[in-house]
Amino acid sequence: MKPSRLVLATLLAGTALPAAAAPPPAISVETLKTVTRTLSDDSFEGRAPATPAEEKTVGYIVERFKAAGLRPGNKGGWFQQVPLVELTITNVPTLSITGGKTPLSLAYKTDAVIGTYRVQPRTAVSASDIVFVGYGINAPEKGWNDYAGLDVKGKTVVILVNDPDWQAPGLEGPFGGRAMTYYGRWTYKFEEAARQGAAAALIVHDTAPAAYGFNVVRSSWSGPQLETDEAGDHLDQSQAVGWLTNDAARRLFAAAGKDLDTLTAAAGRKGFRAVPLGLKASVTIENSIRRSTSRNVVGLLPGTSAPDEYVLYSAHWDHLGRCEPVNGDDICNGAVDNASGIAGLVALAEAFAKAGAPRRSLLFLALTAEESGTLGSEYYAANPVVPLARTVGGANIDELNVMGDTRDIRVVGAGKSELEDLLKQLATAQGRAVKPEPTPEKGFYYRSDHFSFAKLGVPMIYFEAGSDLVKGGVAAGEKAKADFEANRYHAPADEYDPSWDWSGAVRDLQLYYGIGRRLADGGTWPNWYPGSEFRAVRDRSRAMK
Length: 545
Description:
About 30% of the residues lie in helices and about 25% in strands. It is built from 15 helices and 22 strands. The chain has a 15-stranded mixed beta sheet that branches. A three-stranded mixed beta sheet has the order 20-19-22, with helices on one face. Helix 1 (about 5-10) packs across helix 11 (about 420-430).
């Protein structure tokens, strides 16, 4: 890692603004309130992509982008078309387990959530041998392979969530200690199981290493599921994928005469070998199939003297739509997550337009299908409307702070990009401390749209408010964050509240503005720190510009 003062000096070199420049921009609280309240209204039905609510959502975003002073950003158009396919389960897929001490019938949603990525009306797994593969990781560079010497073609693999060292007190360990790596993400585990030829892949849920309760799994997986519509209909994926509750997993292991805790401990040690459980799994999944097209919204503020170089802001407009009802309410409105982020995009666009366009262009992306696995950003990154080699860097906004101003901010995925030095300088000027995220084991870095760009080399900063509230301190901040995660995250209760305190959102957006203004008025190209997993691809990309 380069010394921060040197990196910062490089970033600021050639910038029209001095390090302690103009006063912070005016961020419109009225814009933040109006856009968040509007997009999270029941009439938008939770903003699920490829539903009638999408037309209303993207139409409103275009209206606000226009009013803010942006131009259409995709060859004269506001939209990038994103082809999607929607799978909706039409049966009740009970997971049957045989061959053990006691046959098990694991109920859908109560004991297990099962689905498929395959675009087929009917997918079945019949009497598939079950194998426990520990954390389901194949990492040659780390000398770790949970599939070593194992042929799982046609079999069902049971997998633990997160990394083997997620309980480490610090960041030392084969997989970054308690900081989750991509090997710990559920998406990776299903990808690797498919590469290994598994017929089915089941992850054992546990709230601490997963970073959310099973209610979040149930609400996210039990409705219509979206995938990008690609040639091959995803037939290279396992026939069935899903999650087991911890209790259901314990019953499954007990039926095999095994103990989950004992095998979990063994799986955390290097050299672990998969354990056949002597059980067989069967499940049938019936789906209705609907192909559709969703849209990313692309707004542009052209640069004055380097219009072919771009600084990027992103936020996702979608949420879960109709979801598991709570007290009769089945609309997951997604007010904080992420109507507030779109409100932030609009407010930033207004601030930039009012202050005057910078020398480089600014691209504002309102992305679709983040909640379905960052599909909109993945599609954009693979099919960019402006070349990634000409994209200087940027910032992603996922949930604004509505609990009040904080004395600190938290960098998600700290230690990766030179943009962190710029963020630190700007935050220090605000009198705020910059801290690494306190729970890197939750893998937030891999759970939002910035990751789609990072994988292809574009430096993106992603941060969130800390917990040290100016009014209330750390205790009040931690309480507010815990309440949101437990009671409102991905649930109908994430609704607009007129009593919210927007002062923290304003201060955070001033940081977002400062980062974009410095990058767009400057002439340098920030990079990933040496040793970052994204450095090599960025270097290759820049060499091709």
